[in-house]
Write a structure and sequence with these properties.
The chain is α/β, with parallel strands linked by helices. The protein is built from nine helices and six strands. A six-stranded parallel beta sheet has the order 3-2-1-4-5-6, sandwiched between helices. It is globular.
Length: about 220
């Protein structure tokens, strides 16, 4: 029986992955660099340090990780300052969350974003109180694709990997979850060339996920 459901946030709960990608491209171009969607698709889902190191490859000149971090944080702060996450919120997740609560399935968020940011977004979308555990990649020396964030989340939820499922969209997130031994639904991304091939099963929306959860519950099996 499924005892826990773990979500990534960006690109899953909120349709922000594409917006984030455009901000990254704008940042690169603002410094005189150039990159295509194909070249920068690998940035999606990376931990902060890996992201800063990788994005510098598209910039003219030589920058330290600290310099890139400072410049990008300042640039992105302007882009996100007045961003309303509600239009980007995948509202059909509420039915999934209600189903989980009604069936005593624990809920967790495991995101590479900072905990403060995750809580702010979930609060803005009106679903913060549904989650039993919120885990941030900033808590670990190495975030996704390292499976530690998921192994820690399982420990906090007091469930085994076989008793949990997760929803991810990025290559790094999917790799982290599957490496932790968790059955992983890949939230299909069609706008960017993201490698989602490691996912156990693809879904096209939260309605698909709810259907899957209902089917597993009706079978009353201990594993997927």
């Amino acid at each position: 029986m499924i005892k826990a459901l773990i979500f990534d946030m960006d690109g899953v709960v909120t349709d922000t992955e594409y917006y984030d990608h455009q901000v990254q491209l704008d940042f690169i171009e603002s410094l005189g660099g150039h990159a295509t969607d194909e070249e920068t698709a690998g940035l999606i889902g990376k931990s902060y340090d890996d992201f800063y190191n990788s994005i510098s490859e598209f910039l003219p000149g030589t920058y330290t990780t600290e310099e890139v971090e400072e410049m990008f944080d300042k640039f992105s702060e302007e882009k996100y300052r007045d961003l309303d996450y509600r239009p980007l919120f995948r509202e059909d997740i509420v039915d999934v969350l209600k189903f989980a609560k009604a069936n005593n399935v624990k809920l967790a968020m495991a995101s590479s974003s900072t905990k403060k940011h995750v809580e702010e977004v979930l609060e803005q979308c009106g679903i913060l109180n549904y989650f039993d555990v919120i885990i941030s990649g900033e808590m670990f020396e190495s975030s996704k694709p390292n499976p530690d964030i998921y192994l820690y989340t399982l420990k906090e939820l007091d469930v085994s990997a076989k008793e949990a499922v997760t929803v991810e969209d990025s290559y790094y997130g999917i790799k982290a979850a599957t490496s932790a031994g968790i059955y992983t639904f890949g939230y299909r991304e069609t706008r960017l060339p993201v490698d989602q091939s490691r996912a156990d099963k693809m879904i096209d929306g939260m309605t698909d996920l709810l259907d899957e959860l209902r089917r597993y519950r009706s079978k009353d099996k201990g594993s997927l």
